[in-house]
Amino acid sequence: MKRAVVMKEEDLINLAEKIGDQSLRDKVIEMIRNPRLSFLEMPNSTTFSKSPASKRRHHSYESGLLVHTYSTTKVAIALADIVEEVYGVKVNRDVVIAASLLHDLFKFATYSQTYPGKYNRSKLGEMIDHLSLITGELYARRFPIEVIHAVASHHGDASPIEPRTIEALILHIADNADAEMNDKVFWAAKDIIRECLGLDVQTLPKEVSPFKVVLAKKEGGCEEVRRRFSSLL
Fold first, then answer.
1. DSSP, residue by residue, 27-92
2. Which of 130, 148, 180, 190 is the least crowded, having the fewest Cβ atoms under 10 Å away?
């Protein structure tokens, strides 16, 4: 839920530029710049750049999907480094980066904003999930099967197929790590706000980073939390 850094689509493009294979790199950048479905009409929904990554859990705020995508990709690259250095296994970084950048791309098409900070399923989202949408679109755009597999299996045991390559496993672990860290910090911040300010909040305004709420409590207790955030909540 960290909002101190304003994430933009260009930050994802910069990561995509690390893909060595030019054809794959161009396909990934085109999808990020033009996230459309070639086999279904795009619904009235949020946009990719404004969408949350979930309705009520991790990164459930405006542009949370961009933040989650960027962070997941960075974690996945770091894991690839570790796997190669510690375990001596060569990792296809092109697949890792491409799949990480695209794994949740069409979540935005499954959400609609009812009012600021509150999201529901779009009409399309009531009929089909984001994992099916992105997998279908990757097939339609003729992405390599290794990328499609990594994306299709990134939910692990809850996916249509479990991860069966090192690259797919890296994405699954990176996705879980970023989502769980963000989720845990959000709920910790809510508890701190309840304890220190007597407020039971469901969402936080853009000006209030859950990470900074937790840090404020660590540095100065409830007094510091009240000093920094009482006027913003």
1. HHHHHHHS---SSSPPPS---TTT--SSSSSTT-STTHHHHHHHHHHHHHHHHHHHHHHHH-----
2. 180
Q: What residues does each domain of the chain span?
A: 9-175, 182-229
Positive or negative CA dihedral for 215, 220, 225, 227?
Answer: negative
Beta partners for residue 45, in sequence order: none
Residue 169: both structure tokens together: 């496993």
Question: Are residues 174 and 180 in contact, defined by beta-carbon separation less than 8 angstroms?
Answer: no
147: left (phi over 0), alpha (psi -120 to 50) or beta: alpha
| Cα separation, 48 vs 63, whole angstroms | 8
| Secondary structure of residue 158 in the 3-state scheme | helix
pTM reported for the whole predicted model:
0.89
Distance CA 137, CA 151 (A): 11
Pairwise CA distance, residues 111 & 114, whole Å: 10
| Cα–Cα dist 178/72, whole Å | 6
Rg (CA), the chain: 19
Q: pLDDT tens digits for 25-51?
A: 999 999 999 999 988 877 666 788 888
Dist CA 98 CA 15 (whole Å): 9
Tell the residue number behind the tokens 């909002």, with chain if given. 3
Can you tell me the distance from the alpha carbon of 104 to that of 42, in angstroms, rounded to the nearest whole number?
A: 16
> At residue 106, does pLDDT exceed 70?
yes
CATH architecture of 9-175: Orthogonal Bundle (1.10)
* pLDDT > 70: percent of the chain: 94
